[in-house]
Design goal:
Layout lengths: L1 H17 L13 E5 L8 E5 L2 E5 L7 H10 L4 E6 L5 H4 L2 H7 L1 E6 L8 H12 L4 E2 L6 E4 L2 E7 L14 E6 L2 E5 L5 H10 L8 E3 L11 H7 L3 E4 L12 H9 L3 E4 H4 L1 E6 L4 E6 L3 H26 L9
Parallel strand pairs: 3-4, 4-5, 5-6, 10-11, 11-12, 12-13
Antiparallel strand pairs: 1-2, 1-14, 2-3, 7-8, 8-9, 9-10, 14-15
Helix pairs in contact: 1-10, 2-4, 4-5
This protein binds zinc ion.
Amino acid sequence: MKKILTFLLSLVLLFAIIYSPDLVAKEASSDLEVHFIDVGQGDSILVKSDGENMLIDGGKRVASEIVVNYLKEEEVEDIKYIVGTHPHEDHIGGLIEVLENFNVENIMMPDVLNNTIVFEDLLNAIERENLKIKKPLVLDNFNIGNSQATVLAPNSKKYSLTNDYSIVLKLQNGENSFVFTGDAEKESETEMVEAHKSILKADVLKIGHHGSKTSSSAEFVDLIDPDYAVISVAKDNGYNHPNKDILERFKDKDIKIYRTDKDGSVVARSDGENIQFTKKIISPDVRDIFNGISEKLADIKDNLFIKYLTKKIKPQTM
Ligand SMILES: [Zn+2]
């Protein structure tokens, strides 16, 4: 019996090491979940509220499987809104397979074309699904479950940079709010500062353009004034993302930064008053180990219980 107890204790310890509290995605009874999915270099954000879902970007085409599997694991079947923030591959590439695997009600993209095969393939996929692209107007509103999304950008019809066409959304859930910037750069940020000064403040900012120095201008960050910021970026990405000075700008303001290259997929849960961040393990290896241990523990527990019932062993106090 002592041996079994020692074995059980060491398993519990092993659990504690693999699944430190920081890494466990806690089940909170919250209204809104925002999943910043680790897709390497690119963006993909799943928003879940009261049974409705929105997907902001789908990562690169090579990340399609990651995104589709992530959504399936989250038991997503219907997507009320897909938002393709702008037509660059690291944002729209994965959306083609998402359209093929899920029931999508609406797709929203800015009024700009891109001369790439992936963009053409996306347009074809949208047509196959009999969808029509919605081109948002500034201050348009729509609901995802209990939360309300408002379009903050683009504020102009023409930009010199494709990134500045990025659809920027503010999502409000009770007192909690998020701003998702796509790859909007300084020109779009300046327009938002001028046009929407009074509504920019948010608790969480998805940092623009993977933390590049061409986004996150001081005035824009000052007005958002977030407690948390998230950067969606790959390790050793070759673009020098995120930029050191930009990271400093957020650190100087004591804004807690989560990065998908370091933290993996990150989930923010909001109950309308508070926001709690957790990191989600998506490594299949770690998951397999965890599932293996869970099954073994269940077997041991069952065996002990059967032995106890058949009085082969006497219960002991620890
Ligand atoms: Zn990008």
